Amino acid sequence: DLRQALARGEFALHYQPLLDLASGTISGCEALVRWHHRTRGMIPPGAFIPLAEETKLIVPLGEWVLREACREAATWERPMRISVNVSAVQFRQPGLVQSVMGALAASGLPPERLELEITETVLIHEGEALKTLHQLRALGVRIALDDFGTGYSSLSYLRRFPFDKIKIDQSFVREMTTRANCVAIVSAVVGLADELGMTATAEGVETADQLDLVRQVGCLEAQGYLLGRPKPI
Ligand code: C2E
Ligand code: MG
Ligand code: MG
After folding, report:
1. What atom in ligand 1 is closest to the CA of residue 169?
2. Of the residues 14, 18, 19, 49, which should be mutated to test ligand 1's pocket, given the most ligand atoms within 8 Å of the CB?
3. Whether 188 contacts 217, CB under 8 Å
4. Which of 55, 82, 216, 217 is most buried, by the most CB atoms less than 10 A from its CB?
5. Is 132 in contact with 98 (CB distance < 8 Å)?
6. 32 touches ligand 1 (CB under 6 Å)
7. Torsions phi, psi of 144, nearest 5?
8. Percent of the chain, pLDDT > 70?
9. What is the model's pLDDT at position 98?
10. Where are the beta strands (DSSP E) in the chain?
């Protein structure tokens, strides 16, 4: 079914806003893929991205997401950013930089409005990945480190590449109101991001208390159900 889904046009993008906490305005949206299966209904990405990666179908799917997200963002009246998730498998394909260039050229979207979200697994295969990151940066595209705090969260990744943004994983944000050590961790990551010239974004903000806390520790940006759920455009 996954093999045929692209040709059948069964994928769609939902968009979730990111809030700039200083100005209170929306700084951009993250594109999140959905699969409208003919009989099973809406399938969330967690249920099919791993299979798409295993079968390498993530390459054409990721290319579609990139083109569709850039095409959509180019029509917006306000020049907000568009964030697109890029899988580690996609990242290892030689054509990624060309793909990004193609999506920008076809849509006319200025490169600085495109932000690619990668996870640290991309950096495990270091040499080539770093080269690709620098090539993407040279295009003017922004790079965010997604889900920070899960996995190894090696600080050496932060030393090796100057990310534009660190997205603090929702598991930390969720526990901030109940566990003081989570506040300390988020606060330290925010301080680190700040010193390194990176934006710290809190993921998964669901309650007003959580929003207060992420503000207090100095997060510059927040995303979560409280601020807006992912929705069709
Ligand atoms: P992610 O990039 O970390 O995206 C954030 C996920 O958290 C989204 O789940 C979003 O709906 C969810 N979320 C946002 N705010 C809240 C909140 O306040 N509470 C809770 N509980 N959840 C919140 P979603 O859309 O199911 O996507 C899951 C993951 O699938 C994404 O995590 C991303 O890693 C992957 N993914 C989604 N779209 C794509 C895509 O186009 N390409 C690739 N390679 N991966 C994608
Ligand atoms: Mg993401
Ligand atoms: Mg995330």
Report:
1. 3
2. 49
3. no
4. 82
5. no
6. yes
7. -115, 145
8. 100
9. 97
10. 11-20, 25-37, 41-43, 81-85, 114-118, 142-148, 165-168, 199-202, 221-222
- Report the percent of the chain where pLDDT is more than 90: 85
In this prediction, residue 29 carries a pLDDT of 98
Furthest-apart CA pair in the chain: how many Å?
A: 50
Spell out a b/e string for 165-176, using b for 16 or more CB atoms within 10 Å of the CB, else e. bbbbbbebbbbb
The rounded Å distance from CA 146 to ligand 3 centre is 5
Residue 223 C-alpha to ligand 2 middle, in angstroms?
10
Confidence of residue 232 (pLDDT cuts 50, 70, 90): very high
Joined together, the tokens standing for residue 114 give: 């495109």
Written as six digits, the tokens of 210 are: 């959580």
Between CA 10 and CA 97 the distance in angstroms is: 26
CB of 204 within 6 A of ligand 1: the answer is: yes
Structure tokens at 226: 């409280």
Q: Which ligand is nearest to the CA of 45?
A: 1
